[in-house]
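Module 6 notes. Inverse folding takes a fixed backbone as the condition and produces residue identities as the prediction. Think of it as a translation problem where the source language is geometry and the target language is the twenty amino acids. Below is one complete input and output pair. Work through it position by position during the lab.
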């Protein structure tokens, strides 16, 4: 009996040691499998300088309501790009004192890593990077030859919707102003392929990437209202659709 009592503490110690060292059924054998790693954060789209003076949605809706509807506008003929130019040979206006063109200035404003390496023309943008909002938030333009300065309201559309009736020297100057307007939201750098696809089409026939349709519609309305241009019924319907979209703010 005394021997049995003497062995009892040793047996308890052995059992306790085994319990402490044995793997628990409630715990995984490999701690790394306890929880999956958190998902990687989605990369954020690169930010680019915004189009200036785009009105708020409420303002754009009000401006659109005040624009005259003219369904005969597409039938207006006689458009010539030269009607919007200071000279017959230069598509863009030049600005003193350096005589940089509107195109140069717009490329600089919207671009990054801009370089001017043409010693004969220090204003010329010879390389840079730009966003391409018509193609979506991740779209970019990496080569100068692919960068186009687009007129939000195409000049042919402007001609047909009112600019054809601007007469005399004052009318010509107003057309030049519209083609070179860097205050109203009329000029934007985009990829040449998207600018070509758009051409002279209005929003009833062409739209940018869905992420930019709200901004595009608000800018279009602002320019048309500022220059007292008209819209067609189909054009108005397309603009209302973009402005009334759930994601348009």
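Target side of the pair, the amino acids:
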């Amino acid at each position: 009996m005394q021997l049995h009592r003497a062995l009892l503490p040793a047996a308890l110690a052995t059992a306790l040691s085994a319990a402490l060292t044995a793997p628990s059924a409630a715990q995984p054998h490999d701690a790394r499998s306890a929880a999956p790693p958190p998902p990687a954060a989605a990369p954020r789209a690169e930010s680019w300088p915004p189009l200036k003076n785009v009105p708020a949605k409420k303002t754009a809706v009000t401006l659109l309501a005040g624009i005259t509807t003219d369904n005969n506008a597409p039938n207006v003929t006689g458009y010539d790009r030269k009607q919007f130019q200071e000279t017959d040979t230069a598509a863009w206006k030049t600005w003193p004192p350096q005589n940089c063109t509107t195109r140069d200035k717009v490329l600089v404003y919207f671009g990054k890593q801009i370089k001017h390496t043409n010693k004969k023309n220090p204003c010329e943008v010879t390389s840079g990077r730009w966003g391409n909002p018509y193609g979506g938030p991740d779209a970019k333009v990496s080569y100068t030859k692919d960068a186009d300065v687009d007129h939000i309201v195409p000049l042919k559309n402007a001609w047909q919707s009112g600019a054809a009736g601007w007469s005399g020297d004052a009318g010509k100057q107003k057309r030049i102003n519209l083609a070179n307007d860097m205050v109203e939201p009329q000029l934007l750098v985009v990829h040449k392929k998207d600018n070509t696809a758009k051409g002279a089409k209005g929003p009833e026939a062409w739209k940018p990437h869905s992420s930019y349709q709200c901004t595009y519609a608000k800018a279009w309305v602002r320019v048309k209202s500022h220059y007292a241009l008209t819209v067609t019924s189909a054009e108005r319907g397309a603009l209302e659709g973009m402005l009334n979209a759930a994601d348009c703010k």
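Reference fact for the lab report: The longest helix spans residues 2-21.
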